[in-house]
Amino acid sequence: MEVTPIELPPGDTDVFDLDQMDIILPMMKLEDGILAHKIGDRKKAFECFEKHAEINNKVAKYWLGYYYWEGYVVDKNLGKAVELFREAADKGQPDAQLRYAFALSDKNSPLKFNLEDFVKYLTMAANNGNSAAQFNLGDLYFNGKLGISKDEEKGLSYLKLAAIKGQPKARAMLDKLKINYFV
């Protein structure tokens, strides 16, 4: 089979300018961005999170929110951070659900405390397996904190889930109460 080369009209080859072409460059994997964060390369991590957040990756939005909250690489922007936490939280990202819940109770946050939303997002995070949320929600119910009706059974259920996952505060609390969390 003979291949016939395509002939371009004269002058058309002059219009090719790499600076004017949309070239799709490979994107760093999100896992590599998280690894960059862990080893302290925050600039590289931020760039990765930013690119992945642009394509609506909920984990990247959480991390990008974290960078805005802490002021890593960019100026601290709590408003932008809570916006990103909420977007990721509403898409089911457990760490973002926890961060958003606690942003509601942080005195430096631009959000006004709302107990109903606080419990809602803390519960979402706990039910999605976040052990810190499980401990905090368990403590909230077990001790009846923040005006929540005391519910020791519900509280113990969340505390045990957290303890089984190795959450140290949950284990310490249950050990102090002499409650076996493996039952």
From TrEMBL:
Gene3D superfamilies: Tetratricopeptide repeat domain (1.25.40.10). It comes from the Eukaryota. InterPro entries: ISR_Activator, Sel1-like, TPR-like_helical_dom_sf. This is HCP-like protein. It comes from Rhizophagus irregularis (strain DAOM 197198w) (Glomus intraradices).
